[in-house]
Known about the structure:
- By secondary structure, the chain is α/β, with parallel strands linked by helices.
- The chain contains seven helices and seven strands; from the N terminus they run βαβαβαβαβαβαβα.
- Strands 3-2-1-4-6-5-7 form a seven-stranded mixed β-sheet, sandwiched between helices.
- The chain is globular, with a radius of gyration of 17 Å.
Amino acid sequence: MILGKKISLILPTINEAEGLGYLKEKIPSSIDEVLIVDGDSRDKTREIAESFGWKVVIEKRRGYGRAYKTGFEESQGEIIATADADGTYPVENIEAFVKELLSNNLSFISCSRFPLTDSQSMNRLNQIGNSAITLAASILWLHPFLDILSGMWIFKKSVLAQFVLESDNWNFSEEIKLRSFKALGDKFKEIQIPYRNRLGETKLMPWKVGLENILYMLKMRLEPLGDKRTKA
Ligand SMILES: Nc1nc2c(ncn2[C@@H]2O[C@H](COP(=O)(O)OP(=O)(O)OP(=O)(O)O)[C@@H](O)[C@H]2O)c(=O)[nH]1
Ligand SMILES: [Mg+2]
């Protein structure tokens, strides 16, 4: 519990056995529930998570967004924190970020990897791709976003009642931020975090995903007002 609120940390996984021990060391004890949503791991991801006392949910339907939507349904916390299971995001800071969320009456914090504190922590192609996609979002929504594709968010679970999240794939990361920004206004905030090198293998094909991200953003921008994806 942090400031009287129950906290769930959700980690989507496919073959992330290499990063889990590292994460366990860094996760603050004030987090009530650590939940992994496992795709089709062939390594020891599930066994290791269970041995740590974490909840393991199996989601065989593929996709980063699908995993998170299942994780949201299965989680018990009033506050949800997310991160990749690859050791890249500073999970040790979750307690401070939850306090920032609650004491400033925010609803959604998105943790920006940019500007990078360690330029070696992300390859050049991903740096350029992330910057270009974030710039596109900033132009389309007339708001200076820092990182539209960060995988670390801290938010009140109640915000999920305000919109429908449709992406099952990698578009989910920009979708949840953009829908939160649209629905929450100044209760949506980005804060900068240190980002680290990945443990284990990437699951992402950068060119394909980058193009899909741009196309999905354009489609979202063209959604009419009062669209069914914004709940009344
Ligand atoms: N359950 C589930 N998890 C997934 C799926 N795709 C990716 N993941 C997990 O989602 C997280 C993000 O994937 P990454 O491969 O780290 O993607 P990325 O952060 O954009 O790329 P990196 O630079 O390699 O870290 C990781 O913990 C993956 O194991 C999926 O289809 N299902
Ligand atoms: Mg990652």
